[in-house]
From TrEMBL:
Pathways per UniProt: Cell wall biogenesis; peptidoglycan biosynthesis
Molecular function per GO: glutamate racemase activity
GO biological process, one term: peptidoglycan biosynthetic process
Keywords: Cell shape, Cell wall biogenesis/degradation, Isomerase, Peptidoglycan synthesis
EC number: 5.1.1.3
Pfam family, one: Asp_Glu_race
Active site positions, chain numbering: 75 (proton donor/acceptor), 189 (proton donor/acceptor)
Protein name: Glutamate racemase
Residues the entry annotates as binding substrate: 11-12, 43-44, 76-77, 190-191
Alphabetized PANTHER family for the sequence: GLUTAMATE RACEMASE
Domain of life: Bacteria
Organism: Ramlibacter montanisoli
Keyword Isomerase belongs to the record: yes
Length: 259
C-alpha cells in the first residue's frame, strides 16, 4: 500500500536531523529514509546550480530506490535553490521545503527587531529576499551570513561552534528587550538548533530562539493527509544513507536523536 511507503528527508549533512526530530514527534508511526549528502557539503557555500543539481538527483534516487511517498527538503539552502524545480519535475509527490522562520519571528518579537543567522547561500537567494520583502512592514531583520558554522556543527567541534556563535551574534548586535534591541533570533539553518544551548548561554533567557522543525512537520502531516497517505500504525523505522561518513552520521543520530 502507498501508505506503507517511507517519507524521504534529505539535507547536505546532519542539520536535517533537527527536522527529522520534529517529524518523528509529529508522525511517530511513519517510516523515514534520511539522506545526508555530506560528501558534497556544505551547500550554503556552494553555487545555486550545484545545489539544484544535487537536490534533483537525490529526489530521483529516493523515488527510484526507496519508493518514497513524500519528500522533505530539510535544508534551507536546497529549498531556496531547488524546491520549485523538484515540485515541477515530480508533480505527484508531496514536497515540503524549509525556510528561515521569519514569519513566526515577526509575530513573536516585541521590539520589532529580529536577527537572522543563516548560510550565505540562503540569505542571497531570491526566495529568501522575497520572504523578507513580504514582511518588511512587520519587523526589521538583521541578516548575518554564518560561514563555517554548519561545518563546525557537522564536525561536532565544540570550541569552534562556540567561537563562531559568539562572533556572529556580536555581528548582529545588540540583543535585549529594550527599545531598538534584538529580542528574537532566527536559527536559519537546520544545523543551528543543535547549537541552541550555546546561543542561549550567549544571549540569555529573554531572547527568543526560533527554528522551523515543528511548522515543517505539521505541513508534512497536512499534505500526506490530503492524499490519504498517513500511516499512523507504522513502525517508525529510519533508514540511513550518506555520501559521507556513515560513522559520523550514526554518531550524530545517536547524539541528537537518541537513535
Amino acid at each position: 500500500m502507498d501508505r506503507d511507503r517511507p517519507i524521504g528527508v534529505f539535507d547536505s549533512g546532519v542539520g536535517g536531523l533537527s527536522i527529522l526530530r520534529a517529524l518523528r514527534a509529529e508522525l511517530p508511526g511513519e517510516d523515514f529514509v534520511y539522506f545526508s549528502d555530506a560528501g558534497h557539503a556544505p551547500y550554503g557555500e556552494k553555487g545555486e546550480e550545484f545545489v539544484s543539481n544535487r537536490s534533483l538527483a537525490i529526489a530521483v534516487d529516493l523515488l527510484e530506490q526507496h519508493r518514497i511517498k513524500g519528500l522533505v527538503i530539510a535544508c534551507n539552502t536546497a529549498t531556496a535553490a531547488a524546491v520549485h524545480l523538484v515540485r515541477a519535475r515530480h508533480t505527484h509527490l508531496p514536497v515540503v521545503g524549509v525556510e528561515p522562520a521569519l514569519k513566526p519571528a515577526a509575530a513573536l518579537t516585541r521590539t520589532g527587531h529580529v536577527a537572522v543567522l543563516a548560510t550565505r547561500g540562503t540569505l542571497s537567494s531570491a526566495k529568501f529576499k522575497a520572504l523578507q520583502e513580504s514582511l518588511k512592514d512587520q519587523a526589521e531583520f538583521v541578516l548575518v551570513p554564518c560561514d563555517g558554522l554548519a561545518a563546525a556543527i557537522e564536525a561536532h567541534d565544540e570550541p569552534r561552534i562556540r567561537e563562531l556563535c559568539r562572533r556572529y551574534t556580536r555581528e548582529a548586535c545588540c540583543f535585549g528587550t529594550g527599545p531598538g534591541e534584538i529580542d528574537t533570533l532566527v536559527m536559519g539553518c537546520t544545523h543551528y538548533p543543535f547549537a541552541a544551548d550555546v546561543f542561549r548561554e550567549l544571549l540569555g533567557p529573554d531572547v527568543q530562539l526560533v527554528e522551523t522543525g515543528q511548522p515543517v512537520a505539521r505541513q508534512t502531516r497536512r499534505l500526506l493527509e490530503a492524499q490519504d497517505l498517513l500511516n499512523p500504525a507504522g513502525s517508525g523505522r529510519v533508514q540511513w544513507h550518506t555520501t559521507g561518513s556513515a560513522q559520523e552520521l550514526q554518531q550524530a543520530a545517536s547524539r541528537w536523536l537518541g537513535l
